[in-house]
Amino acid sequence: MSKLSRIICKKTRNVWKIRANMMSQSQIIDKDIRLDFCSTKEEREEFYKIAGESFFISSISLRYLPDEEKRKQFLPAYFRYLHEEQIATGKATLMALKKRENIEGKEVWRTAYSGVYAYDTNPTEHADASEIMEIYEEGAEAMIKRDKWFEENIDGPLRDIAQKFGTAAWLMARQAVTKEYKNQNYGLKYSRFSTNIAYEMGLKKHAESNNSPFKYPPFEYVASSDTFPGGMKLMEKSGMYAAAHLHYDHKLGLKCYLDSEEKDRSKHSCYFIMVDKKIHPVLKEELNKAFNKAKL
C-alpha cells in the first residue's frame, strides 16, 4: 500500500466496506441512515432545491440578495451555476445523508443533509450565467463579483500553498439541511463522517492522477461568512478552526462583527477560512504566514 493510501485509510472509517459497496453508490450507517453518492441529474437538482431553501436566510442571502421574491428563484439556479460542471466532471462529489421514513405504510428514504465537496477548486470554464442573470441581474452580478474575490483571496492562495508543499487543498463547498430535518443535528453529527468518505472516494482518485503521493496530507477548508451567535462554535465542534479572518468590503459602511455592536448580518464584511484541526503543523505554520495580516 502506498504512503498516500495509508494516509487516506487512517482518516476514514470502513474504507474497504465502502469500496466493496460502490456498485450500490451508498454506505449504510445504521438501519435507518445511509449515505448516498449522488451521480444523477435528478439528485443534483434535488440538492440545488434543498440548498436554495437552506440558504434563504443565510449571510450570503442577507448581504447580496435583498429582494426576497427574486432570491427564491435565484438561489437554486445559482447553486446549479456554481456546482453543476464541478460535479458532472468529477471535480467535486455530491453526497446525501438519507433517513428511512414510513410514509403512509411505504418505506421511503428521504434526504436529511447533503453536501458538495470540491477536490479541484480551479474556476469552472463553461459555467453559464445566463439563467441567474435573467432571474436577478443585480444579485447575479454581486455574487459573481464575490466569487472572483473568493478565488483571488481564498481559493487561489490556498491552492498555491498546497502546490508549494506538495499536497492539495480541498473545499467543503456547500452543506444543506432539508427544512423538515432542521434543528436535529444531522449536520453536526454526520458532517465529519461525510467529509471523510468524500476524501476517500473522491480526493484519492483526483490526487493520484499523476501517480505521485503527497508530501503532506491534503487539508480541508471551508470559507464561511456566518456571523450569527454560536456559528463559530458549531464549526469548531465539527473539527475546524479559524485559520484566517478576512474582510470583503463590497460596499461602503460594512463592519467587522468583532469590532462593532452591529447585529445585522447584511452589514458585516467578515469571511473565515476554517481549516481541519488535524492539518499538518508545517502547513498550519504556512497558513499563518500567508494570512498574517488577517485579523484572527
Radius of gyration: 19 Å
The CATH architecture assignment turns out to be 3-Layer(aba) Sandwich
Number of helices: 10
H/E element sequence: HHEEHHHEEHHEHEHEEH
Structural domains: how many: 1
Structural class: alpha+beta
Could you report the average pLDDT, rounded to the nearest whole number? Answer: 83
Q: Would you mind describing this structure in some detail?
A:
The protein has one domain (3-290): Aminopeptidase (3-Layer(aba) Sandwich), CATH 3.40.630. The protein has 296 residues and is α+β, with helices and mostly antiparallel strands. A hairpin with a 2-residue loop joins β1 (26-30) and β2 (33-38). α3 (41-54) packs antiparallel against α5 (68-88) and α7 crosses α10. The longest helix is centred in the middle third of the chain and has 28 residues, at 137-164. It has helices at 3-10, 15-20, 41-54, 59-64, 68-88, 130-135, 137-164, 186-207, 231-237, 281-290; strands at residues 26-30, 33-38, 92-103, 106-118, 169-177, 219-224, 240-247, 270-276. Mean pLDDT is 83; it is low at 1-24.
Give the helix/strand layout.
Elements: H1 3-10, H2 15-20, E1 26-30, E2 33-38, H3 41-54, H4 59-64, H5 68-88, E3 92-103, E4 106-118, H6 130-135, H7 137-164, E5 169-177, H8 186-207, E6 219-224, H9 231-237, E7 240-247, E8 270-276, H10 281-290
Parallel strand pairs: 5-6
Antiparallel strand pairs: 1-2, 2-3, 3-4, 4-5, 6-8, 7-8
Helix pairs in contact: 3-5, 7-10
